[in-house]
Amino acid sequence: MKNYDTIIIGAGPAGLLAAGRAAELGGKVLVLEKMRQEGRKLLITGKGRCNITNSADIPEFIKHVFPKGRFLRNAFSRFYSQDIIVLLEKYGVDITLERGGRYFPTGNKAADVLKALLKWLAELKVEIRVGYRVEKLLVEHETIKGVQANGQTFTAKNIVLATGGKSYPATGSNGDGYELAKAVGHTIEEARPSLVPLETAGRTAQKLQGLALKNVRAVVWVNDRKLTEAFGEMLFTHFGVSGPIILTLSRTVVDELHKQNKVELSIDLKPALDEQKLDKRLIRDLNENGKKKVSNIFRSWLPASMIPVFIELLEIDPEKECHQVSSKERKKIRFLMKNFRLTISGHRSFKEAIITAGGIPTNEISSKTMESKRIKGLYFAGEVIDLDAETGGYNLQIAYSTGWLAGDSCMKTE
Question: Among the CATH numbers 3.50.50.60, 3.40.50.2300, 3.40.50.300, 3.60.40.10, which is that of 2-192+356-410?
Answer without folding.
Answer: 3.50.50.60
